[in-house]
Design brief:
By secondary structure, the protein is α+β, with helices and mostly antiparallel strands. It is built from 9 helices and 30 strands.
Amino acid sequence: MRQAGLPFENWELQLIERLLADRRFRLVAFLNVSKQAGENHADMLTRIVAQLDGSLFARQSRYGAKRFERARKTILNIPLDNAVEDGDRHRLQLDMILRHCDAKLPEPVLRDLPLGAWSLSHVFTQSGSASWDGIADMAAGAPTSQLSLFLETARHPERRVIAQAEFNVKFSAARNAAFIKEKSVLLLMRELRRVAGTGKLPKPLKAPDAVQALRPPGVFRTGRYAAALTKNIAQRVLKSVRRASHQETAVWTLFSGRGAIDDFDPREAIEIPPTDTAIKADPFLFHHEGRTYLFYENYGLGDTKAHIAVGEITRSGFEPIGIALGGSEHLSFPFVFREGDEIFLMPETHQRKRIEIWRAVSFPLIWEPYSRAFEGWSTADSTLFKHRGQWWLFTNLSEHHAFEDHCSALYAFQVDGPELKRIVPHRTNPVVVGSATARNAGRIFSRHRRLYRPAQYNAHGIYGYGLNIMEIEHLDMDDYRETCVRRILPDFKPGLTGCHHFDASGSRYILDARLNA
């Protein structure tokens, strides 16, 4: 159901393409309403600011919907009034309606839908062609923006939240809104596939407080946002100039101590400080033949790419050994693991558009290619682990049009181990949506029969602002559930602005933290 006369937005075209590509779904008709009939109309200032913001910072190329172009003539276009008066709703035998506009859905239509009407929260934050989604969040300094998926049924006609996701705020509300619209397709498709597999509607979440938050920001908040946007633009211009002249480099440092993933105290950690030529991030520990090795992303001030370096943690401190992997592309996240008598390394190689696994020939400095997968895909921060005898691959895959982003979706696959010859996607991929918890932040840990996943907490407009410890409560091919049991913020030591990676081996742990520039 959408407003007649408006062109399809990119997120709508992406959704339509995915529906047409999946045999479990059939797109029958577009129910068109003559005008926006909702109550959330923004004032003139908000519309002007939103339109100017969008024209400057949210422009994107048109999404090429090839399947839709071929199938367009077979999809009916029906005025909503006709569907009510002429009985088209009975002839169409609809299971559900996806609402793409803030218009009242007639009760007779809702009554005939076994699976109700579904809608994404951003369709209620639109006034004509201007979206004010995110203006209130940014004016209030919110750490994240929330996306909700609503359900309406004849029995419960009020909107109820059935799925949610949080996303890191962008410097511009319009860019924020465009980004969330693109990622909302992932959330909606995941829930649709879940219903197709189970035949059951999702249970409403316990706290649907987002329903009351969908109000235009008003003149005061819009004015505050316009001032904040001006400041953000000036800061970005300054950063771009400094980065172009190699005057600004993100500087990370490492902290190590004694403890495990469920009880470590970062306040007691000892720093392994960076140098101008050895800035360390994404640390992984590996215990081998009585020695503790540290693999890490390494770069220097002014560098535009990093390589994988390795050193040893000794009683007296840290001793660099050398370069484990280098190359012409940026490398990071050196996930090192053992299987049988062999040692493997799976770094992040998303610039090569694939996943690579290397095998140690002469540990820790000489490695040979072993396997590769996901050719042509943009993946990041991948990790392998065994659970109940089955190998799993977790990766942050970016399925995108305008916004390549590795923080918003976690994908799970059953695999055959390091060979990566057999890869079976989880039935509800992506299993996690939202940049507050989706991105991997280290290896998966099994401790006291409980499974833990370190995950980044991306918030306050900062990549890698904090660190989540997620407990995986259920994992099989039909379902995935996790909950956050700890959150580490960059306040455990003075002068920090972020922390985004954790690893442990034996009784020792290590994490990285970003230093205040």
